[in-house]
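Build the 3D complex.
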Amino acid sequence: MKPEIQSSNPRKRKLFESGLNDAHSLPLSITDFIKYQKCSAKEAAQITQTVNNIKQVLVCAEETKFDSIQDAKAAFCSHGAHIPYPECGDDIYGAPVFLSPPARIESELNLGHHILRKPGHDDAVVVDLIIQVPPITFHPKDYLEYRYLRKRILYLSYLTVALRGSTETQGYSFSHDFLDGDELRPTVLVDCLHVVHSKCRIRLIPAIPHDLFPIDRLSPNACWADRLSGVPTPMYNSSLVDDAHHLGNFELLRQHITSNEEFKGALVLGSTWLSRLGFSSHMLDGGFGKKEWALLQLHLVEGNVDTHSSSKYAASSDPFQIFKSVLNLIINTRLHPQTGTPTLCQTYTQYNILFKMSRWSFLALRHHSSAVVSLERSGLSSLSQFHRIFQNPFCQIYDITASFRIDTLQIMEKLPSTTARRWNLQHSINDYCYDILSKGLGDRYKTMVFCVPKPPLRHLENVLGSEKPDHDPYNLCISFTLDEKTCMRILEYGPGVQDTRGSTDFREFWGDMAELRRFKDGRVMETVKWDATPSPTEQILGFLHRKLTSPFQTKQPPIFHGCDSEIYLTTPPLIQPPGDLYETAISEFQTVVNSIRQVNDFPLGFRKITGISPALSLTSVKPPLSCSRYLEAPLEGELDLESSSMWPVDPEQRRRSEFGLLLKLRAELEASGRFLTARVGITTTRNSDNTYCFLDLLTKSRYYFRFRLKDAMDITPNGLNINPQIGPSLDTRNERLINTKQTFNLQESAVQKCHQHQFFAPSLRILGKWIQSHYLGLFFGNAILELFVAAVFSPYFPVAIPSSTYCGFRRVIAYLSCWDWRRTPLEVDVLRQFTDGERTQILKEFRADSWTNQGSEACLSVVLASEDGRVDWIRHRIPRLVAIRMTQLARETHSRLSDVSTPFNAVFDTDMAFFDFVIVLNQKYELCDSDRRYSNVVMLPKTNVSSSLYASFIRELRAQTDEYILLFPSPDSLLIGVLWKPEKESGVKVVPRNPGNTVPNKTAVLGLIMELGRGLVDRIQVPR
Amino acid sequence: MLYTDTPVTMARDPSSLDSADLSAFKVLDPATIASINLLPSNVPKIHKGLTALPVRSNSLGAFSSEPVFHYLYVKPHDPQYTPVINANPNINGRSLYISSIPFDSTVHHFRALFTAIGGGRIETVIFSDEPLQPQPSTADENNILKNRKRKRSNPAAANKQTAETTPWPSLWNRKLHLPGTTAVAVFIDKTACDLAMKAVADNSTDNPNLDYFWGDGIGKGNSIPELGISRYEDHMERMFPDQEWAQKFVDDSLEAYDNRLKREEEERRRKANEPDEDGFVTVIRSSRPRPILSAEEIAERLKKEEKKAKKGFYPDFYRFQQRELRKEQANQLLSQFEDAKRQVRERKDSRKHKS
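Done.
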């Protein structure tokens, strides 16, 4: 029986409905993946039928002749098929217009060759219909003064009228948009709602014969559209050339697609990869989509590239190799040295395939391509590379995102005089902003992605009128991928003092911020120095925003997502700014360690004394504070004694010997007078009754430490394992992994390697905070969270290592949201990558152990690869309900953070509606202020440590009620959310209501809670 | 004199009580309790051969005056299915098996319960989660039945405890039973047991006048430590035993352990000189001191150490060194072989010349 039957809680119902059976989570072969990306044959057939209907109607359209363009416009307007368009160019309204049915109509190749990609969840299947306009429509000089565009629009209106008047296309809706965001070229969109399960949208794209206009004269720097101004119109020229090449490219592509299956596969891979990165043919999405990819691939296989590697891949018969060869081609392409625009021309036609791309998108695409190609250099096998590229959940997660309000009219004044301001203004503004930002950020960034809100689709009109250019302000969102090594640098280096021109430029750019600075090595350079907090990148972006908007006053400050200031200084504070609190605690710990090492009269030497508390590795959610300021659990350390043959063989006697050793150490430390208190305590492990002892030390600075002996129970002097673990498992004792020693060491070294990255620890802190905010802290200790974060700091992903806390956190969340823990283990390949053989073996072993994931318990499996070729497993067992909750929360958080308007701290709001009832504890066991004020009072955190009392209570309550309820304590244990377990799990303490039907005695359980928590539990709250 | 500490400037995180949105919740009220309460009238009297015995509980009294019931399940104890019989061979016919016992059950609770409902007198209660006390093997069931006076057993005498096996101090003042724990209530005789079972049947779910509250009637002499906050405060105290006591505990324990080891060792040595039943003598390692080394042996040892010291630079640490070493050895062997061949040839030649 599913829990939702038992509970009417809607949140819980949703939890179980969330589909975890995503096919993406399973490693697929390349062929299967390509197959999975394509539309079903049934869908394709239905779309083909629709397209054929439209073709039929268009071919049979009646010829029409108008005396003038004005007449034609009026006629189309009366049919409600007018496409508004800005008036421009010379006056040719009196010229007659002859419109006839298309000379040729071709549907998109993807449709005909069954490689049409499945759309996203809410997206429509888009099919392009290339329609050759009969040459008679145009005059040979129509390429001048925007005349071509004007007639192109009339032809689209003509087609629309034909479609509207036909019974074949009844029920279709018509709208118009710009072709790939190019404001020069409108297009008509036909929406067919009832065709398939998903929406289908057909774009009517007019094309012209190659020899209609003198294409060779339409070079980017030529001026044909606006000859009076004399300003070159590269975009107009390129648009015209593009229309002239539609059919030519179509033919070439058809030849290759028909004859080469691998070519088709590579097309699917390319378009999938681009769409996951957020690139499309739309100019505001980078101007590089499936069409441009196909043309690059065509360019490559036509043998137009002399790069050795590209040719090598092109000759291969593997779609993935062809895919990589295209990436190599992108990497080897450079910006045009004079115009600074991305340029890659087809050899025979001089058609620039990349004419729609901006500088930012070109550099971002090159960066992504390099990241993919670098996987091969890192030694990954082809299949592993494929999985890393196409099962990469980190696409479109950036280090920092800035949102600026752009006042188009103001910025337009600042654009260079050579920039076309009438058409595609946002494209030009993006380039301008990119130039400023890239100069200011220098080597601190790797990629920049611009996101501009796209205008909505427009309806065809029935009123005459020209469209005015849209100059409304809009929000420009720029996402940055930073360089981990340089983004936190506080000094900006400029040119040397001897470089007069460079220095002038530098001073002009940075203004008053620029300073001449002499360095120790004698260099004198222009520099800019930033404060240490907030992060230098944030300060630079603020400066650059002022620079972009000056001299105008902007009312809206820029909004940053992912800045440390946003994460740490929100109200209420999510996490205290770490500052030097960690440093103080760590130095205090070192002082204690030195004191312990200085003990002379101790029978054994100390091999190692390590801090195991998360606070001592900068990963605790709260920074460590002294007892006088904040009464918390002690900071834990581990004493590793040198080996000795004198240990008793009997485990019980060994425990007693350890107790004696700690007593001896306590006596020595107390005698040294360096501590306020030193005492030895005993406790039991959570899962067994084994007693172990510890040493508590309270320093004079009021830091509270607890030490225990390392591996006290595991290692005997003879090297025998006293308590061999049956299988690797995660024990909850002190939230540490106690697997075999090797696994533990491996886990430690993997985490240690990750600690080399400066944003590992803060990412872990934020993840801990997230887990605790949703009351899951009881189930996820620091050790397993470390592994979660380590998984995303792997160097074997085609993305850069996170360079901000925000990015690190988001990547972990993205990873958790798509990790199907029922089917695959979490791979932590920080030290080395897994081989294909190992992966197969891992999956085999995982399937063999799949019984562990059955029933009420879920097993989160983690595999670690060691440098010496070993693969170790760590298994973390938690209630299944908790594992599903984790996945559901990760999905929710991931989708919320994908929307930049969501404030960061909103993802830490606890959803109390999830729980069946809540236990509220009394909040009165705090250290009173009078005690806290005096520093020389020996304060023993004993019974007045509320957290310890609460922890003991929760532990016992959990043991007593484990079969009936699941407890979710809040981070401070003052609230405990509770879920009733599904009935099938609570098989023991049930009361038979009718023969064969048992129900839990809920009142008895509630009574138990009140009885056990007498004096601690304030009340129980239930949903209204 | 007291010194004031630096003022606390750090802003505290809001507690979860302040930050959590509990607007969709209400305090547990009588209506909610009534909706989930299992009244005896809804519970069958017999379930899988066990008789339900409802007891009232006052634990939710703060929220509702409506009685809340806990259901115990009782049947005559069949020792065939439990290991209790092995330790207590004399409880046949005078014990009841009780399942679904409350977590805070003690023998006093059961005595008070059966006294209140008119059952017989309980001698002891054996909980399934407690170690079984071995009974004196000489105990005669008939004697116990005849002599109704309580036999004061001496567990210390039965289970002799030495300093070595002294248990660690208990961290809890009272043991609580985990779910699934069962109990066997041993009555003083069969009549008492039958009486108790009859009382259970009379006070089962079909009896509308159930008014016994769990824990009522426990005498003041049988003080049971309280649950709740005092239990956990006491636990925190117990975690840090008196340091002098702890030192003595460890010293005594380890001394006793050492003594035992010594005794065992002596015993072993003694046996080494005595032939066993089959006439064999166990060979053990001698504890005699080794004879003083001769001058040659000392010289040899020094030589070895010298060699070892020379080797201290790890000439075979790197692979290329190992390779060279192997090559050198191979060359040496080759040269030895060549020498040997040459010698053989020379000898043959000399023989030829002689002949």
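Chain A has a mean pLDDT of 80.
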